[in-house]
Design a protein that fits this description.
The chain has 198 residues and is mostly helical. The chain has one domain. Helix content is 75%, strand content 0%. The longest helix has 29 residues. The C terminus is likely disordered. Keywords: Membrane, Transmembrane, Transmembrane helix. InterPro entries: YjdF-like.
Amino acid sequence: MRTPRWTPAALVLIATVAQLLVATFARDLPQFAGKAFGARLVFYPLLMLFVPVVWFVVHRRRRDAPWAGLTLVMTPFLVDVTGNTLDLYDTVVWWDDLLHFTNWCLLTLGLGLVLGVARVRPRWARAVATIGGGALLALLWEIGEWWTFIRHGTELATAYEDTLGDMVLGTAGSTVALAVLVLLARRAPTAREAHLAP
């Protein structure tokens, strides 16, 4: 029996929500303190499901769903929460920087696959859509972080420099995602080649 193509996305969602529940109700643990996990428990699942729901509302078909892209869009939320669960943000100095780069690469690559950015013409529009979209999402993320826990928290003194660095890393991750999308588009067979294939 074949595993449904949506299984990885479902597992990512379940693993994220399970950790969010632990973090929300175990606030006495130091890795969860002051990081707005009550808000994350509400917003992370909503953000994870936003792109899949919009895709299904627009396309109204399940067989053609770009599950690889949808799973990639959801994965950064799991990685973020897992980093908190394992206390990596407070114990590994470079973890936050790595995550901003990697998660934006995953997020932008996933959105690129879902939206078919590799087929966008001219090429400069593809770059604007991918890198510009990633930079915009990085900005919105930083605004969300500031609103939920930085403005009244202990990180306010270093927030300016950290925010700038995070936005640069997110944009760099989106640039790598563009390169991957271009490579995937070159490797994909053309419609004619697919038709002639045995």
